[in-house]
Amino acid sequence: MSTSHKVHCLILPYPGQGHINSMLQFSKRLQSKRIKITIALTKSFLKNMKELPTSISIEAISDGYDDGGFHQARTFVAYIMRFKEVGSDTLSQLIQKLADSGCPVNCIVYDPFLPWAVEVAKNFGLISAAFFTQNCAVDNIYYHVHKGVIKLPPTKNNEEMLISGLSCTIESSDVPTFVINSEGPRILELMVNQFSNLDKVDWVLINSFYELEKEVIDWMSKIYPIKTIGPTILSMYLDKRLHDDKEYGLCIFKPMTNECLNWLNHQPISSVVYVSFGSLAKLEAEQMEELARGLRNSNKNFLWVVRSTEEPKLPKNFIEELKLTSGNNKGLVVSWCPQLQVLEHESIGCFLTHCGWNLTLEAISLGVPMVTMPQRSDQPTNAKLVKDVWEMGVRAKQDEKGIVRREVIEECIKLVMEEEKGKIIRENAKKWKELATNVVDEGGSSHKNIEEFVSKMVTISKVIKKLINNHKNN
Question: How many structural domains does the chain have?
Fold first, then answer.
């Protein structure tokens, strides 16, 4: 390892774009403090990459499905089980290879979706840190399921639950979907397994910030060595302390940057509804129809990200009608966009989102009010926090068929962008934006936590190195 580096940190994300990007942004913060970073990505994920960051070393490991990754496996459970077996082996080989090349690893920062990484770290005598890509409230709920405190499934649909650490009561419609429905008890087991060996790690890092989740962080900190290090979004949009940090660097889809920004530049200030359901969510055709009609009926300009695989679900001739009726000025549908540039644009008035955590954190960081339409996983909990705790958005409620109707979508958009209640929401959004910037700036809570993590990692590494040298000499 170069003498200019204090420590070598190996980053192991779960191979999904949202998981990787948040860990990559954290890595950039560490790298700016002279920590050497190597990111271990699966061969299957690397095959699909459009571009890779040049400043960070990337090494390949195997998940056992090198041709197609998760999609090649029969089920999610089969994928995770195979990944554990093959991943443990190939990660160990990588650590050995790096040691043999004179660049030994000192610490593994891993995604708790892959808890077996702790055992690999212990086998090599390495420091380990779990990096939770979801917020602390969601982690807290899974922790209570892990401990058997939450009865599954909740006995009544609208039964209010008071969970230790959470600042508000929640209903069954607010908890992660894996907890309350039949998406698969094995998937819930995998979520809960994030805590299976957490008592063995040196740190628990959370992609959130203290001011956003004070109560639950204080409560969880009594159990685990928790440090909030977020929001992990590009420095260019927060504190601007990392030079040239303008791109995430890892992207499965190619953004239509020029089309989006040129169109936004011609829209009035705060007039546009930005709509995106991220890189994974799949809406039913009926829901796509209701969303399309709700956007049109709101009489607001809208920029809607519809991935190419989802486009066939749009109402027939919808895009053509948009072009004919308004010269493409009322609405623009794109396959992907440069999201932070869009959210930052002065023409954006609100963000209609499924409330995945990365997207939610980006909206918080850029002060954009939200209309939430949660679909699955942690999204209902995030939507609850957005509406009732952070008070910077509204939740569009589903009907008994699980569909959010056009009238509801129209009403929510108008509430956020026009009504008196929307004014309070917009003011709160500005407040959270300021806090998000402050926490990663000099002296902020997340900045201090990252400094402490680096300092302790360097100290522990020196002690271990000294012990190894003494052992060799004896």
Answer: 2
The CATH number of the domain holding residue 94 is 3.40.50.2000
- The single-letter DSSP state of residue 315 is P
**Are residues 450 and 431 part of one domain?**
no
Q: Which of 8, 19, 144, 354 is catalytic?
A: 19
What is the chain's percent helix, strand, coil content, to nearest 5?
45, 15, 40
φ, ψ dihedrals at 298, nearest 5°: -70, -15
pLDDT in tens, 46-93: 987 766 666 789 999 999 999 998 889 888 888 999 999 999 999 999
Domain carrying residue 371: 257-435
pTM over 0.90: yes
317 and 203 together in one domain: no
pLDDT digits (tens, 9 = 90+) for 433-474: 999 999 999 999 999 999 999 999 999 888 777 766 665 666
Asked if residue 140 belongs to a domain, the reply is: no
CB contact burial 21-59 (16+ within 10 A = b; e otherwise): bbbbbbbbbbbeeebbbbbbbbbbbbeeeeeebeebbbb
Active-site residue 378, yes or no? no
87-122 pLDDT, tens digit per residue, is: 999 999 999 999 999 999 999 999 999 999 999 999
Closest among 342, 323, 343 to 331, alpha carbons compared: 323
Selecting among 8, 63, 67, 111, the annotated active-site residue is 111
pLDDT for res 244: 74
In angstroms, the CA 468 to CA 319 distance is 65
Instruction: Kindly state whether residue 189 falls inside one of the protein's structural domains.
Output: no
* Per-residue confidence (pLDDT) for residue 85, from 0 to 100: 97
pLDDT at 185: 63
Mean pLDDT, the chain, as a whole number? 91
> Quick one: 294 and 410 in the same domain?
yes
Side chain identity, residue 194:
Q
Residue 144 bears catalytic tag = no
Residue with tokens 């809607």: 304
